[in-house]
# Entry
Amino acid sequence: MVDATRRSAFVTRFKPQYLDSLTEFFRDLWDPLATPESVANARAQDAAQNVVNPGEEFPTYLFVQQGRVLGHLTTIPVRLRSGGVDRAAYWLIGFMVHPQHRNGPIGFLLLKQAVSDLEVTLSLTVQQATIRLLTAVNFRELGILPNYLRPLRPSRILSKLDPEALGLSVLSPVVRIATRAARVPIAAGAAGLVVGTGLGVWAAVNGRPGRGVREHYGAYALGASADALWSDCRDRLGCVAARDSAYLRWRYDVSSAGSYRSLSITEDGAMRGLAVIRVPRAIGDPRLGGIRVATLSDLIYDPARVDVGLALLARAERAARRMDADALLTSAAHHAHGPLLKRRGFLRFAGNLHLLVRDEVGALSGRTTLGEWWVMRGDMNADMVF
# Structure
């Protein structure tokens, strides 16, 4: 670490002496209402849930110049499961340089310090500039997570949105015909009916959930039963950040006032699968013509249990409809997800989340292809953006 006492500009891990400067940075770039108390409290709450070093604040790196924070990079510590072994790893998040000081060395210096401290680091990013910086410090890009969209209220979607502009790459002939028809506003309702009927028939024929499973909603899904589910299936998920109950409760607030809802699938009294859904924005997404998009943020199930996977997807669609969502979106890397999503009528379109990994100690058991990673949009808080 650079000796901060001898330099007017340096990279340092967060210390309490930088709290006021960090708060000013937050107010300028993210939260105009941030206070030193709110920033300190948030860091303390995260420290209490640190699964790698309990009680220790999440590693956060600052670029400081003459006492002012000009760059910020923080992390989410996770226990990464690969080859039957848990390893400490860190998602890199909150990577930001003050607008007046971009196109300089600050971002590179922040990354260089973080990766010198942390053995295994991960990133999900949509920014090409960030990808270039990450690869410059020996990150390897594994690929782009595919996006999948399940239309729930096709009439609303077709009246507001041009699917071709989204880059939909797999459209059935029925959907193509309906999309063209919907370009005439008066035809949107009829076109939506065609699409909805077609997808419904497809899902009924190809994606019928298994029998003998039951669904449950709410905080029950994040209780002790989630630990048993995680223990049972964790070594069949490839490379995956731990999804035990402690992590799930910290990551997803499923209270009635929170942004997430959870549901679980049980069989013979045991939890067999778990899904977490992010509630759509109340006013819809302006980038998508105002349609209301719920996000399937996380899934946990034994990939060999196709019936459970299909049941989770069917229940997630039902839950999203109850949220008045027009569509359900997910992004999923693992090779097990794509076939099930297709069977349930999800349409694949161009992805935007790049998964990059830096493993200088060989901790990941040769997991070098995207399909070996159980990564979804809920990882690294990536479900907060689209």
